Structure prediction request, 266 residues.
Amino acid sequence: MMPNKLKFSTIALLAGVTAAVVTVSSANAQSGQDDDGGERFLIAGVTAEYEPVFLGSKKNEVEPQIYVNARWGRFFAGQRGVGLDLFTFDGDLEFALGTAISLGEGREEGDDIKLKGLGSIDRPIEATLFGELDFGFAEAGLTVGRDIGKAHKGTFVDLDVSKDFELNDRLELEIEAKARWADKKFNQVFYGVNALQATRSGYRAYTPKAGMQTAAFSVGLTYKVTDRWSVRAEAESKNLLGDSKKSPFIAKQNGTAFGIGIARRF
Prediction:
């Protein structure tokens, strides 16, 4: 979906921090050495995704995106947002604990006729604390997040398990399963209908409780064209769970997304 409206100061803050991490990563990639001797890289590219306009809709759209994955020692910018590794341990089991800030998904009332009268939802500013554990044969992660903006002010917990397979020197397959629990505030904003919304939309008032919100399974395939260039294709199936799937404006309880992209390592 297209970005929702945010205060300029918030956009400037996130863009500035991301740019700082990316710039430092690029500079150190040229020098070949970090101040702390940690890992550093910069990967940037473009992707296009075909996905539901919101989970629960029968309507799909194509959304282009800019992809950035950068690291400079303990600092990173990427899928989790902009963040910092607080603690890492390398041994038989590899463990990392970190924190990040990112923009979550919002929703526009005009995206789907099913949303008429429900109003738009700004993209939340999500502060997260996460832990990652690498068992060798698979990786598992746990993320606790909260909206520190004004979108829903709710809390969520994500659990994911993933596994990478190197099919050959250039081809890699990744599979991942994940699930999300959300509190009452989060579920109410995205899947509830309050009294005013009920009057405007014609839906019955609905108040979902805290509980499991979504479960998803994804498959990704990355092909390394050269040492610097790569292409990736992925597919994800996501399902609504618990009270969220019972919302009166939900037309479809599951959605499938497809994506393709190209990236360069600097």
Summary: The chain has a mean pLDDT of 88. The longest helix spans residues 8-31.
